[in-house]
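User: Batch of two.

Assistant: Item 1 of 2:
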Amino acid sequence: MTEHARFLLDLTRGRRAAHEQQLAAWRARDLDCHVDFSRPVVILDLANGRLRPQYTLLKRAGHRVVGVDLVNRTGHDATALAYRLARWLYARSLNAAVGDGRKAARSDDALICGNVTALPFRDASFDLVTSVAAFEHFLDVPRVIDELHRVVRPGAVVWACIHLFASPSGGHNVTLTEVPLRTLPRGIDAWDHLRRRRLPFHVPLNEWRRDQFLAAFERRFDVVNHYCAIREGEQWLSPSIRMELSAFSEDELTCAAYVIVARKRRAA
């Protein structure tokens, strides 16, 4: 079975929906003291992706959500059709997961095709920015953060979950079907992307480390929380690999999903 086939199977079985709901639960917990969700919140879903899972969940919760991504363009090729099927499967599994029979919110009525380094929004437009597994792909992270600082209101919050490059799945070669990564395909070495690089990168990766992301956010925002949300790879971290990758701490090598919660400073 190919990885894409397993991915579609995970969608039909509800595994992807369960994972996305877990992310949403972490976000709700992290923002409980920082964002008033008793009223509709104006949210920017940064780099929403082709599947648009968090966009769909946030819309479903009754918020005003805008998604921005270069993939938000109309297409009729095989890839576009495949993602339409994936979104339909995701919506169906989401309905099954909540068990209340409601239909998932439309996910195409506030999607903007735009560049994250030049956001097509006015200053101080949003109460909250959410981002999942996107910052590791941005090739000019400081500029993206500058743009976020511009488009959010004073006191607004950015919640970013970053797939760290130093993790076993950080090279994005074996991440399609397992979150967190628990098994390695035959013939693939753990942390190949940090060691021999036998596998090519198929997507843009900035290769930033955890402390680089933290420092970049601290330059423009007040970081109110940061933590490792998902760990993986402890079973592969042998003494020889630890020695080979001594430039990285064990904590860094096993943190796959790193969350940063940052607030824009209010005017004095």
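Item 2 of 2:
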Amino acid sequence: MRRLAAEVLLVAGKDLRIEMRSRVVLNQVLPFGGLVLLLFAFALDPDRGLLPRVAPGLFWTAVLLAALLAISRSFAIESAHGARDGLRLSALDPAAVFFGKALGIVTELLALEIPLASGMFVFYDLEGQGWGILVLSSLLATTGLACAGAVYGALAGGLDVRETLLPLLLLPVVAPVMLAATRSWEAALGGTTADAWPWIQVMTVFAVLYAALGALVYGPLLEET
């Protein structure tokens, strides 16, 4: 178990170091997500009463679009520079590689969500409440999105059409977790936190399911793609 944890941190650290040097998420993906929220704020500004109601859905839409860019870039780098072959030839446990990739994606997405959520509260004039539900929902939804992204990113990563194939594979799969995250946020912001727990259970099941699936199939995915 200690060796597995060390390998997970090794892979995640490699991905995060690449991102810290390139700063693509910070310089490109974050402004993209912020622009999406800002454009919706301007588009719906005449009806200020509508903005708070649609804010959760718009937030998770922005996160999902940003996640597609981050996931696609994470696997494109490995394909372009032969790192995928290095992972195949290394003695790393495939499950550790999967969890390391997922952990790196989770870290990048959380780094995106914090400023995006802060901007949303400012642009959409939201009142802060239900913080525990908001944080828990974000962690679960982000984990599920990252695990699914790591699976389908590896599946599409070795193909020339990965930029267009990844959204086609990932969007139908993560639709339930995006819906659950939106409903959970709506309940938290609306002050009815009890209504959020069934949706939190959905996100928990999704995250556990894809974490287990990724640990099982990531080895064959690395070999076949």
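The chain has one domain: 2-224.
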